[in-house]
Amino acid sequence: MSSEPPKPTEAPSRPGAAPMVVPADLPRDELEHLVEEFGLDPGAFKTRQHLVAALQERKALIAAMDREAMLDVVRWGRRPVPVNSTKEQLALEIARIKSMRFEGLSPRGLCVLAQMRGIRLNGRESPEAIRRMLLRQEGFFARFARRRRAFVGKLIAGLLGEAESEGEYQFLPPQQSPPGAAPTPPARPASIAEDIEESGLLGGLASRVKKSADVYLNQKLDEIEQRIDRKLDEIDRRLAEWRDKEIANRIRIIKITLWASVVVAAISLLYSYIKVYFASR
Amino acid sequence: MPEIDFFHFFRLGVGWIATIYATLTTIQSLYGWYVYLSSGDRYTSLMRRYLLVQAVRLRFRAFAGDLLVCLLLCILFLIIWRAHYPIWQIESIWRDVQRTAQAD
To answer: Can you spell out the DSSP letters for B7-71?
Structure first.
C-alpha cells in the first residue's frame, strides 16, 4: 500500500478559466456524481476527459457569478445555507433546487438559476425571456409530470389540511468548518404540496416524514442534552459541598488537637509553677 | 540518683511519639498522592486538572474563622511553651541556692 497521496491531473482548461484539479484515481462513477452535484447531466458526456472539462467549465462559470445573485436564489429556493457560504457551496445548493415557480425571484437570481440549469445567456435577455427559456428547457413530459405532481400535492395538502403559510427565510448560523465542506441540510420549511411537486408523491411524503422525524429527534436530543447538563451541574454542586465539608472536618480535627495541646501545656505550666512554689516553702 | 519527674516524662514521651507518628503519616500520605498524580495517563491528567480547578474554586472565607482560631491556638501554645523556661530557671536557681546554703 502506497503512503503517497494520489497525483492530481489537471483537466483540459478553457482559456481564462481557473484550473480545476481532479484526483487522477477518482473512479468514473464518483466523477459522474460530482458532475451531477454541480447541476450537469453526466449522461451527456462520453469520456472521462469530457466530464472533467465540463466540471472545469462549470466551476469557472460559478466563479464568475455574482454572489448576491446566488444568495437571492438560495433565499427564493429556501435552501439551508450559512450566510458566509462560499460560491461553490451556494452553487451546490442552487443545483438542488428543482422548483419551476419563479415568483419572487429577482432578475439577477433568475440569470444565475438559468446558468446553473445549463442555459447560455448573453446578458441582454429580459427576465420574461429567461423564464420562457427555462420552461422550454424543462420539456413537455417533464412539465406534464410536474403538473401532475403539483395536482397530487395540492390534493394531499388539502386532505392533510396543511396551511400554505411560510415564515421569512433565515440563513443558518455562520459555519466554523473550513470552506469547501458542504453544509448539513436541515429540514427545509416548504409546504407538502411543493415537496410532492418536486419529488413525487412518495418522495414528497417520505421527505415530509423524514423532516418530522428529524425535528422530533432534534427536540429529544435537546431535551437529553439539557438533562445531562442539569445532572452535571448537580454533580458539580454536590462535589463542591463534599469538598467544603471535608475541609471543614479536617480543620475541626486540627483545632481539637491544638486545643488538647494547649490544655496539656497549660496543665504542665501549672504543675511546674506549683512544684516550684511548694519546693521554695 | 537522677531525679525523674513522671509528669514531664509522660508529657515529653507522648509529645515525641505523637509528633513522629503524625509526621510519618503525613509524609506517607503526601508521597502516595504524589505517586498517584505524577502518572502520565489521560485520566490522571484529568484528575490533576480537576483538583487544580477545585483548589482554585475553594472559598477561603468559609473557613477563615476556623483558620484564625487555629492560628491563635498555635500562638497561645508557643507562649505557654516559652513560659515554662522562666519557671524552670527559677527552680534551678532555687536548687543552687539551697545547695550552696547546705554546703555552707
So the answer is: HHHHHHHHHHHHHHHHHHHHHHHHHHHHHHHT--SHHHHHHHHHHHHHHHH--GGGGHHHHHHHH
